């Protein structure tokens, strides 16, 4: 009998499990659409030129690696604010935002969850149905009751907006509402600006606490366009949380660079909130790592590197959009028995294709094409070399 005898095996992460099965598959022409990262036309994770150049400068500088401040690099935190809230944002000018560098977007969510736990909320966190699956686990682990709000409507492959409004209305007042600011993961189905106005009204009336998760800024319609929801909330005068990530927009997954931003009501409130967020950080990991945020900071604050990054981000976005269009065209030309046009309307890296679990299984067994059993595919894993095989197979399994 040891301390660990009663420890049970935790369930495997379904997406990592899928990757393991893919790696073990001996078939040569196999295709993995189950991943959650951007692949370029050659099927590789790109190293952005802007990142490589910043890394060269950093290498040449031979800078010592002291500790960072608890809330991270100040210039980085400021650059994050401008990216999210806009260059001329009132909330920035009024010094009402607190921003802390975090360990990726996940780290920002966890910092926010832990700080919120010290405040007066209903104790309920509401997430979209479906959502990025770590939302549920993270907030449950942080001590909240997690509930779903309606979001995706399978019959239209679109949004169940009325269901969403009803569910937000039905939550107890002061519940925390997690909202995907753009490029909803896993569905790709986003809210329009008009939808956001209505959501804001309900959240305001019910005194809910909005927590915007923006992990794909720049992958939807553009850097500024994708931040529309963040800016609408800022204009509303509400206090709210934003978790943001550079994992995707800098193709910087393993560097773990993100930020938690909290919009408060006054400068003085911001100072008190920051002091508490610092306490959460200090007691978890003391202070954040230097490398990734230093590079992001160099790129964002250097006009030339920033312009290069924006170009590279735009080309990732455009390649995904091209793949969406091509996929839909090919499915139509090949006589698919349903209209997949909705895939063009979706935003970001993912698509809920509407394929059933049984169809996804056939894709894997008969065609060595791997997707998530919910029908989610990573559009960024498509390229000119594999798209024909993918659309052929989808037409076949839909027959
Ligand atoms: N939020 C959403 C909606 C995501 O899809 C992801 C990553 O897949 C994250 C947060 C976490 O991002 P990071 O890898 O920066 O922790």
Termini separation: 55 Å
CATH topology of the largest domain: Aspartate Aminotransferase, domain 2
In terms of structural class, how would the helical and strand content be classed? alpha/beta
Give me the Rg, rounded: 21 Å
Summarize the structure.
The chain has 399 residues and is α/β, with parallel strands linked by helices.
Q: Topology of this protein?
A:
Elements: H1 14-24, E1 31-32, H2 49-61, H3 74-85, H4 90-93, E2 97-103, H5 104-116, E3 124-129, H6 133-141, E4 145-150, E5 152-153, E6 158-159, H7 161-170, E7 176-180, H8 193-205, E8 209-214, H9 223-226, H10 228-236, E9 240-245, E10 257-263, H11 267-284, H12 291-301, H13 303-333, H14 342-345, E11 350-352, H15 357-367, E12 369-370, E13 376-378, H16 387-398
């Amino acid at each position: 009998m040891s301390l660990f005898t009663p420890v049970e095996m935790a369930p495997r992460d379904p997406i990592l499990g899928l990757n393991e099965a893919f790696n073990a598959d001996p078939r040569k022409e196999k295709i993995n659409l189950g991943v959650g990262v951007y692949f370029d036309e050659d099927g590789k994770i790109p190293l952005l030129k802007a990142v490589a150049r910043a890394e060269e400068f950093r290498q040449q500088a031979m800078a010592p690696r002291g500790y960072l401040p608890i809330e991270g690099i100040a210039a980085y935190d400021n650059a994050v604010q401008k990216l999210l809230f806009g260059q001329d944002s009132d909330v920035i000018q009024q010094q009402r935002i607190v921003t802390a560098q975090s360990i990726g977007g996940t780290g920002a969510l966890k910092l926010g969850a832990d700080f919120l736990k010290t405040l007066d909320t209903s104790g309920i966190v509401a997430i979209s149905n479906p959502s990025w699956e770590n939302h549920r686990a993270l907030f449950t682990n942080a001590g909240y009751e997690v509930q779903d709000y309606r979001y995706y409507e399978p019959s239209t492959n679109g949004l169940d907006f009325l269901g969403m409004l009803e569910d937000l209305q039905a939550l107890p007042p002061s519940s925390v509402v997690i909202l995907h600011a753009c490029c909803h993961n896993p569905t790709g189905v986003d809210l329009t600006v008009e939808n956001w106005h209505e959501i804001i009204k309900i959240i305001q009336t019910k005194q809910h606490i909005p927590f915007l998760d923006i992990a794909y800024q720049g992958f939807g319609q553009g850097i500024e366009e994708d931040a529309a929801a963040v800016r609408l909330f800022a204009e509303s005068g509400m206090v709210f949380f934003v978790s943001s990530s550079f994992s995707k927009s800098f193709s910087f997954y393993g560097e773990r660079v993100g930020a938690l931003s909290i919009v408060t009501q006054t400068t003085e409130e911001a100072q008190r909130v920051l002091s508490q967020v610092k306490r959460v950080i200090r007691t978890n990991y003391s202070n954040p790592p230097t490398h990734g945020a230093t590079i992001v900071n160099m790129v964002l604050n250097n006009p030339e590197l920033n312009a290069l990054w924006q170009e590279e981000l735009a080309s990732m976005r455009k390649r995904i959009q091209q793949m969406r269009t091509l996929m839909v065209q090919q499915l139509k030309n090949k006589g698919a028995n349903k209209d997949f046009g909705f895939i063009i309307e979706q935003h970001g890296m993912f698509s809920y294709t509407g394929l059933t679990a049984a169809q996804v299984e056939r894709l894997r067994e008969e065609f060595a094409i791997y997707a998530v059993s919910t029908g989610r595919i990573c559009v960024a894993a498509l390229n000119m070399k594999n798209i024909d095989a993918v659309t052929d197979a989808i037409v076949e399994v839909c027959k």
